[in-house]
Automatic annotation (TrEMBL):
Record family assignment: Belongs to the citrate synthase family.
Cited InterPro entries: Citrate_synth-like_lrg_a-sub (IPR016142), Citrate_synth-like_sm_a-sub (IPR016143), Citrate_synthase (IPR002020), Citrate_synthase_AS (IPR019810), Citrate_synthase_bac-typ (IPR024176), Citrate_synthase_sf (IPR036969), Citrate_synthase_typ-I (IPR010953)
Pfam families named in the record: Citrate_synt (PF00285)
Protein name: Citrate synthase
Native species: Faecalibacter bovis
């Protein structure tokens, strides 16, 4: 009806779904959040407003936004027991494993928000998680850096508050650089939702059994962790640093990627849906340039990334397979410039993706979707009789 692509009724058993939240056109490189083009949203909006838009379906009035932000701010106190759980993890634990565990543990400290039936109960569970999650996410960075835990400051915007919880060094009157906060806000917007990607589909599938929001989102975090999905932003930086350490010869790495004997994936390239360009990658590439210029950082890694991108765009193997940079290709360069540890890159992705996961969980529950039950194409043995041990 809206000229956008919809699934035919047969989709019911394919694990696909109907949704009103995000629209992608892989050929056109188009991404819409509730109908609004990502380019306009990234340029004109902010993460608090995008969270409201994804959950509620419309851009908020100032009064609606103030009420939404206030509801989140009521939920930034995290149970002391989670600090004890955080301390129990070994120093080298990957923050995504900690984040997934502590998110699931929120079920134990918010039992009344597991079994929800009304829109109001779902919204209440949503703002509880939106309040608690950035605190826990910031604590994972404090832990891996061996720093004291920080507290939420409800006088700040959502993003500035998250950033100060990551980096507040306790000096009197600490204030985050507004240029950095703005870049951070844009990055979180660009990661906020992306239709039925691996982690969002995981959230829907787990949520469809009515396991509750905390368990569903914890499952989504685990899915995002994989290097083929959100974990790619960490893998990209490790790959670019390997190219740098190997003398910066991008052609050598591209040839490795084409070597069928020893398949090597160029991380940050390719996409299941975008077979042209990922509109988010274009925006993040410009933001990376701006952040490094503004901060006066001359990071050779950015030049290696640009050289790798250019070489791939001109290479027949990559062109014939429609492989272009995706959202993860440039984001890590900005995170690195913001002094975020590589292990934390996918946690940053998770903080951005949280409102999208929650919006999809709410949509799935509010439209009374049946329990997810994808079918299979059976290619195993035909029916046969049992064979006694003596006859085997
Ligand atoms: C995200 O789904 C989403 O929306 C995800 C996401 C989101 O916002 O939620 O956009 C976030 O996960 C982005 C993707 C991050 N992952 C990476 O950057 C990891 C590297 N990329 C690849 O693993 C791969 O491109 C995928 C997983 C992203 C997509 O895989 P596809 O579409 O299943 O591609 P494929 O495996 O079928 O490969 C097709 C061909 C193969 O060659 P042939 O067998 O035809 O000879 O392309 C080749 C692949 O070998 N190929 C690559 C490649 N990706 C695909 N070759 C080299 N480097 C790559 N990155």
């Amino acid at each position: 009806a809206t000229g956008l692509i919809t699934m035919d009724p047969g989709y019911k058993n394919t694990g696909s779904c109907e949704s009103k939240i995000t629209f992608l056109d892989g050929e056109e490189g188009k991404l819409l959040y509730r109908g609004y083009p990502i380019e306009q949203i990234a340029d004109k909006s902010n993460f608090e407003e995008v969270m409201f838009l994804l959950l509620k379906g419309e851009l908020p009035t100032q009064e609606e936004l103030d009420g939404f932000v206030a509801d989140i701010r009521k939920n930034t106190e995290v149970a002391e027991e989670l600090v004890q759980m955080l301390n129990a993890f070994p120093q080298g634990a990957h923050p995504m494993g900690i984040l997934s565990s502590l998110t699931s543990a929120l079920s134990a400290f918010n039992p009344e928000k597991i079994s929800v039936a009304t829109e109001e109960e779902m919204y209440d569970a949503a703002v509880t998680l939106l309040g608690q999650f950035p605190v826990i996410a910031a604590w994972t960075q404090r832990k891996i850096k061996g720093l004291p835990l920080t507290k939420s400051d409800s006088s700040l915007s959502y993003v500035e508050n998250f950033y100060q919880m990551l980096f507040n060094d306790g000096t009197e009157g600490y204030k985050a650089d507004p240029v950095i906060v703005d870049a951070f806000d844009k990055l979180l917007i660009l990661h906020a939702d992306h239709e039925q990607n691996c982690s969002a589909s995981t959230v829907r599938l787990v949520g469809s059994s009515h396991a509750g929001i905390f368990a569903s989102i914890s499952a989504g975090i685990s899915a995002l962790w994989g290097p083929l999905h959100g974990g790619a932003n960490q893998a990209v930086l490790e790959m670019l640093e390997a190219i740098q350490n190997d003398g910066g010869d991008v052609a050598k790495f591209i040839n490795k990627a084409k070597d069928k004997e020893d398949p090597f994936r160029l991380m940050g390239f390719g996409h299941r849906v975008y077979k042209n360009f990922d509109p988010r990658a274009r925006i993040i590439k410009v933001a990376a340039d701006n952040v490094l210029t503004t901060l006066g950082i001359n990071d050779p890694i950015l030049d290696i990334a640009k050289g790798l991108e250019q070489a791939c765009l001109e290479d027949d193997y990559f062109k014939s397979r429609q492989l272009y940079p995706n959202v993860d290709f440039y984001s890590g360069i900005i995170y690195k410039a913001l002094d975020i540890p590589t292990d934390m890159f996918t946690v940053m992705f998770a903080v951005g993706r949280l409102p999208g996961w929650i919006a999809q969980w709410m949509e799935m529950r509010q439209t009374n979707q049946p329990i997810g039950r994808p079918r299979q194409l059976y290619t195993g043995a035909a029916t046969r009789d049992y064979v006694e041990m003596s006859a085997r």
